[in-house]
Write a sequence for this structure.
């Protein structure tokens, strides 16, 4: 409950226009701990640096609350440029995309614009043997995202497109089981949006326990699973689980956020586990930065110390 109250307080303050203006003016140097940069080359350089330690990248062009169809198409075009740039740099493209950013829910001649742009993006990634993860957003978008994910897996294959489930949502265990026929690649996260108690667990202990259930069930079903957490207790539990059940290291990978626990990322890679860092970049960094601060007081203290030094 304390974690929920902390997250709510931080995100409520962050939504105030005057706070956002102050942050954009003053906090970019601090945000760079969590955001690779504002352009494609910064993102590519971040991947190349991580690869020196055996860590791969999951690139994400930041962009939320994009309204017009023209903006959505432009955003999709920029993701296509990112995929081309990754391939040109010798990196197998692996990107995350929020379908709302490319037009989910907007009609385009009888076709959902988000689905249309997702096809463009996944098709381009598939050309290079790459992968696209359809990010999950706040709970009202869960149904349409899972519906479109099912369509896209049917068209491009589970080896080229995956999605995300959030353990703080009550519904996620049922959602996971309902996707088993696809043999889907799913990134398991705890969830970073501010959700009401009617749809999400308010207590961290319940969120953590549901996280373990999701990961274990997905692995036991023989599916590819991306264990996206910095929680060392959960990571150790997953290590024990896969060992006890004879699950290959090729069936899963640990995923973490850029700028957080690089030491843990390196040590896991050194142990022979597949490790991937989620690398956001772009000018629209404020909402992402706010959610990182809201995750833990440690991140808030990092920002506070940085502001005092400034």
């Amino acid at each position: 409950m304390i974690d929920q109250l902390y997250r709510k307080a931080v995100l409520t303050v962050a939504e105030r226009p005057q706070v956002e203006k102050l942050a954009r003016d003053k906090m970019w140097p601090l945000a760079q701990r969590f955001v690779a940069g504002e352009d494609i080359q910064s993102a590519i350089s971040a991947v190349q640096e991580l690869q020196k330690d055996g860590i791969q990248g999951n690139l994400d062009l930041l962009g939320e609350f994009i309204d017009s169809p023209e903006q959505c198409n432009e955003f999709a075009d920029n993701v296509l440029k990112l995929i081309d740039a990754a391939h040109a740099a010798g990196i197998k493209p692996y990107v995350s995309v929020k379908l709302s950013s490319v037009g989910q829910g907007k009609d385009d001649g009888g076709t959902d614009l988000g689905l249309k742009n997702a096809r463009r993006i996944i098709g381009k990634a598939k050309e290079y043997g790459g992968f696209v993860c359809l990010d999950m957003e706040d709970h009202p978008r869960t149904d349409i995202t899972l519906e479109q994910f099912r369509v896209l897996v049917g068209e491009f294959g589970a080896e080229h497109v995956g999605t995300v489930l959030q353990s703080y949502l009550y519904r996620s265990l049922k959602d996971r089981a309902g996707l088993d026929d696809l043999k889907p690649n799913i990134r398991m996260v705890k969830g970073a949006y501010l959700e009401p108690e009617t749809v999400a667990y308010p207590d961290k202990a319940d969120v953590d326990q549901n996280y373990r259930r999701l990961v274990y069930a997905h692995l036991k079903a023989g599916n590819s699973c991306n264990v996206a957490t910095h929680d060392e207790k959960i990571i150790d539990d997953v290590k024990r689980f896969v060992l006890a059940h004879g699950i290959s290291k090729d069936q899963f990978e640990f995923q973490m956020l850029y700028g957080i626990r690089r030491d843990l990322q390196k040590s896991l890679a050194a142990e022979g586990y597949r490790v991937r860092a989620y690398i956001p970049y772009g000018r629209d960094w404020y909402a992402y930065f706010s959610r990182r601060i809201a995750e833990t007081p440690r991140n808030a203290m990092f920002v506070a110390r940085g502001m005092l030094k400034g």
Summary: The radius of gyration is 19 Å.
